[in-house]
Design goal:
Layout lengths: L5 E4 L3 H13 L3 E7 L6 H5 L2 E6 L9 H11 L3 E3 L9 H10 L2 E2 L4 H7 L2 H9 L8 E2 L6 H7 L7 E5 L9 E3 L2 H19 L4 E5 L4 E10 L5 E13 L2 E7 L6 H17 L4 E10 L2 E11 L6 H8 L3 H9 L16 E8 L1 E2 L5 E2 L2 E2 L2 E3 L6 E5 L6 E2 L6 E9 L2 H14 L1 E3 L5 H8 L2 H4 L7 H5 L10 H15 L5 H4 L10 E7 L6 E7 L11 E8 L2 E9 L7 E6 L4 E7 L1 H17 L4 E3 L4 E6 L6 E2 L4 E7 L2 E6 L4 E5 L6 E2 L4 E7 L7
Parallel strand pairs: 1-2, 1-4, 2-3, 4-5
Antiparallel strand pairs: 6-9, 7-8, 7-9, 10-11, 10-13, 11-12, 12-15, 13-14, 15-22, 16-17, 18-21, 19-23, 20-22, 24-25, 24-29, 26-27, 27-28, 28-29, 30-37, 31-33, 31-36, 32-35, 33-34, 35-37
């Protein structure tokens, strides 16, 4: 079978790199696309060619016509969409067909049916696949949805009809919450998918998320490659996935696999796809159709690891017209595989997205370990894209070995310069219920309040202070930094702050300047030894600022950053604190991170009470509400849809004058 000579990858990050690797193995040239934010990205560097499509995502990764024109310009015969962005956009498939470019994905009919949750549910129900109770009719307003659900039992789940990835999904506990949650869900759906159509489903208690991987060629052959358990989720976003599921019996596994095959056949599906089901933990022999993802899944590596099948290669061969390389009877499952998604976020601070420049990356390796990553030292992590930055996959002969290998791999992975959820992932896989396979989609949220995250000790503060002092110490600055005196060196005093999380701390560190200092380099790995033992530490420092120097470190007991304040920075901080005390509650609310204003909840000049939501900002596909800091009259400094920068003033509240002031 003649394959393609050149394929354009209409995506970015780790999945673009993953696709490029298989293209390279097949002897096919790869073409990357990028926006201005990704000019130096890792996926651009790993491809054989790269082409800039525009300044923003809307002009590049989200623009079907621009993607197809780029393929034509470079002579690519096919386009691989990866996942996310426009991977399930029928307009891309249609534009490819019109331009004579092969779309490495299903046909337009399958995309149209399965890309709409309402239409797909009604379609699949005719094939006899069980459905969850709910309201799934197109064109219903909020008022109609509220009326249609008056006899349903709470809790319920609101879902956007278009799109996926957990975006725009909201759990509703009572009728009192329904109107407000519908408004929020429509706004998120419109922003993320360009379609604010919603449906409502009965929320299954103790639900488990089971999905089945299918492959279908252009000759009518359809097989499944077993199931994946994706029940460990936060805010309906998968965090840890594994294959196979420990819940299903062999009989249920065969039935759910056949249901997935029947679903694919009902729309003449071609390519790789995933059929998602809900399974009640209380009744594991029953399953309910949720949706079909007409693309490669983020978690596809666990299926590849236990089957030995390269799903990207199968996609390419199918798109080129080849028959499936194996039959259902030839699919063999070996061992167990678990994937953990690494996100740029701060779990201790409500999972606030983390942005910055990657100062150091060290990825795990070894038997059974695979890392799919788009990271590199110097990469800039902003808020324009999804916060997932890597996937760590561990495979073993059984589930216990896979879990142990994953724990070790997460422990070995080091990312400095941004906060990640690595420690949080370790908390999850060490949980007794997770180890026993007793999981559901509510477990993650239930465990979070109990988690205690590592914090720096005085020893870590000393390491950071030594590092900053060593970097600052230069011959021209000797009189300023080394405490030189005719009668002997004086101690140099630093303050080391740990501002992260809900339990900030601070250390006063007095350095003996006669002691040996660390080499003055930006990234340094060294062995630190004191009375408590020996520890290997990786350190990286950001550029100094008048407010102090942020120092990142990875140790056996703490990974994160502290802020080292020299004498000048301490004085500035003291003055700032005095000014804040005089002001009282700060009337000004600033952006906690760069993002886009997606909602302004009150008119400018409104009377507000402390805690009232005023403005909502979206960053990295998540919404963050900014609230009034005190009672008074609000002045709003931004407009709906406006891009805002970190620390930009968003709103100001002028407090009411008391009677004593008159």
């Amino acid at each position: 079978m003649q394959l393609f000579s050149k394929v354009l990858i209409a995506n970015r990050g780790e999945i673009a790199i993953r696709i490029a690797k298989t293209l390279h193995q097949l002897g096919i040239r790869s073409v990357a696309i990028y926006s201005d934010a990704d000019q130096e990205a890792a996926h651009v560097r790993c491809a054989d060619e790269a082409i800039r499509l525009g300044a923003t995502s809307a002009e590049s990764y989200l623009n079907p016509q621009a993607v197809v024109q780029a393929a034509l310009a470079v002579g690519a015969e096919a386009i691989h969409p990866g996942y996310g962005f426009i991977s399930e956009n029928v307009e891309l498939a249609r534009a490819c067909h019109q331009a004579g470019v092969t779309f490495i994905g299903p046909g337009e009919h399958a995309l149209e049916v399965m890309g709409d949750k309402i239409r797909s549910k009604n379609h699949v129900a005719k094939a006899g696949v069980p459905m969850v109770d709910g309201v799934s009719e197109p064109g219903l307003s909020n008022e109609h949805l509220i009326a249609a659900t008056k006899n349903m039992t709470f809790p319920m789940l609101i879902k956007p009809s278009a799109g996926g990835g957990g975006k725009g999904m909201h759990v509703v506990a009572s009728h009192n919450e329904l109107a407000g949650q519908l408004e929020t869900a429509r706004r998120v759906a419109k922003t993320a998918f360009g379609d604010d159509t919603l449906l409502i489903e009965q929320l299954i208690r103790s639900p488990r998320h089971i999905e089945v991987q299918i492959l279908a060629d252009q000759h009518g052959n359809v097989i499944h490659l077993g199931e994946r358990e994706c029940s460990l989720q936060r805010r309906h976003q998968k965090i840890i996935e594994e294959a196979p599921s420990v819940l299903l019996s062999d009989e249920t596994r065969a039935r759910i696999g056949q249901a997935a095959v029947d679903t694919a056949k009902s729309v003449d599906y071609v390519g790789a796809g995933t059929v998602e089901f809900l399974v009640s933990d209380e009744e594991p022999d029953k399953f309910y159709f949720m949706e079909m993802n007409t693309r490669l899944q983020v978690e596809h590596p666990v299926t590849e690891q236990i089957t030995g099948i390269d799903l990207v290669e199968e996609q390419i061969r199918i798109a080129a017209g080849a028959s499936l390389s194996l039959t259902q009877d030839e699919v063999v499952f070996t061992g167990h595989s678990i994937e953990a998604r690494v996100y740029a976020e701060t779990p201790q601070a409500g999972f606030m997205p983390s942005t910055g420049t990657v100062l150091h990356v060290s990825e795990p390796a070894g038997s059974g370990i695979r890392v799919d990553s788009g990271l590199r030292t110097g990469a800039v992590i902003g808020t324009e894209f999804d916060p997932m930055i890597a996937k760590v996959i561990a495979t073993g002969t059984d589930r216990d070995q896979a879990l142990a290998r994953l724990d070790q791999a997460l422990d070995e992975m080091v990312v400095l310069g941004i906060n990640t959820n690595l420690e949080y992932l370790q908390h999850l896989i060490r949980d007794a219920d997770v180890a026993a396979g007793e999981i559901d989609t509510t477990l993650v949220e239930a465990r979070l309040p109990e988690m205690v995250f590592d914090a720096p000790t005085r020893r870590h503060a000393q390491i950071a202070a030594h590092f900053v002092h060593g970097e600052a110490r230069a011959p021209s600055d000797a009189w300023l930094h080394d405490g030189f005196r005719l009668c002997g060196a004086a101690e140099v005093n630093y303050r080391v702050d740990y501002p992260a999380g809900n339990d900030p701390s601070s250390f006063e560190i007095a350095l003996d300047t006669s002691a040996q200092l660390l080499p003055a380099i930006r990234v340094n790995e060294y062995v630190y030894q004191d009375v408590d033992g020996v520890e290997t530490v990786t350190v990286a420092a950001e550029a100094p600022t008048p407010q102090g120097t942020r120092v990142w470190m990875a140790t056996n007991t703490f990974t994160g950053f502290v802020v080292v304040l020299d004498h000048k920075a301490q004085v500035l901080d003291t003055l700032s604190s005095l000014e804040a005390e005089e002001r009282g509650v700060d009337p000004q609310v600033r952006a906690p991170l760069p993002g886009t204003v997606t909602a302004i909840h009150l008119p400018d000049g409104s009377q507000v009470s402390a805690g009232d939501p005023v403005v909502t900002i979206e960053a990295m596909k998540m919404e963050h509400q900014l609230k009034a800091p005190l009672d008074g009259t609000v002045t709003i400094h931004v407009s709906d849809g406006q891009q805002v920068a970190l620390d930009q003033s968003i709103l100001t509240v002028v407090g009411h004058a008391s009677n004593d002031d008159h």
